[in-house]
Structures are given as C-alpha cells and as structure tokens.
Amino acid sequence: MEHSKSSPHRARRWRRDTVELAAAFLSVTAADLIAKVVLHGSDGPVVLAGSAVALLTTALLHAWWSPHAPPPTVLWRVRTTALAHTGATLAEHRITLLSFHPHPAADELFLRTPHTLTPAALSALLTASGHSLQDAPTRIA
Question: How far apart are the first and last CA of the chain?
Fold first, then answer.
C-alpha cells in the first residue's frame, strides 16, 4: 500500500525532471544555433558564455524557488447545509471556499484544501462545525 502512496509523487517528480531536462536541451540547442549564427564574428564565445550564465541563473532561481512554492492542494465537492461560520472554520484549517451553490436539497461547496487533508478529516471538520453532510466529500482534482 505504501508503494501506491508514493507513486503520484514519483510520477510528478519524473514529469518535472523530464521537463527540466528538455529545457536544458532546448537551451543548449538555442545557444548552439545563436553561436553558429554569430560565429563568423567575434561574438560566438560571448553568446555561449552568456547562454551558460542564463542557464545557471535559471537553475539557481529554480533551486531557490522550490522550497518557497505553495504546497500542493486538493479540490473537493461537498454537499451539505452551509452555516454562517463556515468561512472562519475553513480559514483556521487553510481551506479555501472556491464557490458556493445553493440547492433545495443540499448546498454544494467547492473547497481547495492542503493535500494532506483526508476525506474523513474533512467530513469530521465540517460535521464538528455544525454541517449536515449529504454524502462523503468528493475529490475532484
């Protein structure tokens, strides 16, 4: 079971690594093309050095930004009776109310939560704050 929990993380990392590798190849190809165009002059080595500096700067910026990036989130649809204090309760748990759709049978809330919040924990949180859930929260994305 633990293998399946790490698979989505591994898949995202694999995709990110592939995109970064493709960007590196594209940068080298662009630098080579530019260097060949200006090679007939004295600017070839300068263009290559400038491209290397730009690539290094991009890599350093990415390394700096990675820990500062927002945490991954999950999108949920919840059918419930909405109460007035919903906003405060959600904010305390870093949950964003994206939209509210009133219906006669049950109101629909669309929520963005930290990826660590489970359906059971979301249900418990909403039930403890006075909501009557019509069904279990549905993960959308």
Answer: 21
SS3 content of the chain, % helix, strand, coil (to 5): 55, 20, 25
* Distance between CA atoms of residues 127 and 130, nearest Å: 5
Say if residues 118 and 76 touch (Cβ distance below 8 Å): no
Given this model, what pLDDT does residue 43 score? 66
39-57: average pLDDT: 75
Q: ∠ at Cα 135 (130, 137), nearest 5°? A: 85
Give the strand pairing for 138-139 and 96-101: unpaired
Categorise residue 81: left if φ over 0, alpha if ψ from -120 to 50, beta otherwise: beta
pLDDT bin (cut points 50, 70, 90) of residue 2 is: very low
Closest to 58 measured CA to CA, from 84, 90, 19, 95: 19
How confident is the model over 70-112, as pLDDT tens digits? 778 888 888 887 666 677 778 888 888 888 888 888 888 899 9
